[in-house]
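Mods, move this if it's the wrong board.
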Amino acid sequence: MNQLFYKEIRPMGWIKRQLEIQAKGLSGNLDKIWPDVRDSAWIGGSCEGWERVPYWLDGFIPLAYLLQDEDLIRRADYYVNSIIDKQQEDGWICPCTPEERSTYDAWAVLLIGKVLSLYCEFTEDQTAENALYRAMKNLYDLMKKEEVRLFNWGKFRWFEGFIPLFFLYEKKPESWMKELGRMLRAQGAHYPDFEETWKRPLNKWTFHTHIVNLMMMFKYEAVACALLGDEYQNQAESLWQVLEQYNGTAVGTFTGDECLSGIGNQHGTELCAVAELMYSCEWLYRLTGEDIWAQRLEKAAFNAWPATFTDDMWAHQYDQMVNQIACEKFPGKPYFRTNHQDAHLFGLEPNFGCCTANLSQGWPKLLLHAIQKTEEGVLIAHLLPCRVDTTIGGKPVQITVHSDYPFRMGAKITVAAPEGASFALKIRIPAWAKNATLNGKIVQGMAVIRKDWQGTEDLTLSFTAAPHFENRPYDLKTVEYGPLVFALPIEAEYKMQEYEKNGVERKFPYCDYELSPKSEWRFGFAGLSLSVEEKEMGDVPFSSAQPPLAVKASLAPVHWDMEDGYEAVPAKAPASHTAAGPARETELIPYGCAKLRMTELPLVK
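Not the wrong board. Structure tokens:
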């Protein structure tokens, strides 16, 4: 398994700017404004004491340490230390009484274990490592005595416990760790049993069709095999194929608002689902080395992930839609299968607060996986602008990736080994890349350089991409360029809402917004010609006002009705594929930049 440069990697370029925006937005301020973090039972308060503080810390910790921001680090340390200080004598770490343990969903135990293992990776804090050891050993003891069993969320997220167990086992292997892993697997849900239920979405809430559970699920076999030593059968791929066929989206995610919703382009995808899909792909690539998981990670990360936030990351959606012409509260029955009227609004806590807490992990963990340690040396898995300062064979080595990927193709990679160092440098070449060369030599798949490095050397990686159409259900098409999906942007009017609900205040900048369309959206592609225009990159990488590139296409108006019974949801396809007016050249922008958008369009006559 590849390892990560937790303490040695630093962001640069656009990804650093994106992390800084996140730190100044909702993610970096939840402990100041949101009762479920600010006043959580995890730190002795009276508010939620289950998943929300661990969810937030799972992204806030890497955000703080990757940016080396002293204030963020101080606040992360405070929360971790406060949680450890309240750990009970026998090792139980969650905020409930001994009498409540049997009815306390153990998902939170697994989640805080995952958080503490992440914290230890950055800090090497022995107190935190001891607390993690005691917490997991306590869970083992309680499950062995059948005083605690998996149910509800813990039953369907059992494999998350393998993350902290794997960390502990690598440090100091003990037999109980594997035994606990086997108990978790035995009591946990077996997802292949539910495949048939994914093929026909229902307006019914279940754990086995819950979109976040399913996105976490993809890694279950890989992480279990990594700890237990079982043979890997690649069940993730077969499960992916079923879900994609019946619930896939144009941006590499799956519909789930909040449970599986079919292939309709106006159904929602929950924010937590995108975050956990990215995390599963990260683990699957590290454990299997199969390029498809790196590709799937990039498609979700560069499209669906930025689309779910406002530019300043102070507001987010619970549900995003691929064809999303308005984000207005439904006046009657919600269009979503099992979510509320406001799930697609941008705000502090639309629908449920799980996504408010879990929105922190996407960008930091993506960066963490950009450059990885291998047995032979170093792998550049994703061409994000970043730098690693490490030692190889006891000699200092610096590897820097200069790039604007995915907005620009190619990168310059600088390897500095002032005292000399021998290792293999691997560079993953995107599968869709055309004309790929490294210092002028043709490469594909994986470029590998094994040599004795001395001094400073620059490597120039060049490749191109071609904008093209992809087929979608209902005889529609999307436009892709590299890992990016493009959409027709709809001019949006932001209607700010400040109010208080259930003791939680919405007040600028952490208020809510309804988005209403101010431009026409009923169009189809009027030809097959596509051209890319690179634009100036501003301070906001996925800016809705200043996108860093565009694809020009010919569009013509079409007759496109609303979904029956709704005033702000388009039908999944137009009534006719015949143009209703003259065509004109139009700019499409990256999906992640367009908050209101039409992504799947017909090719018109």
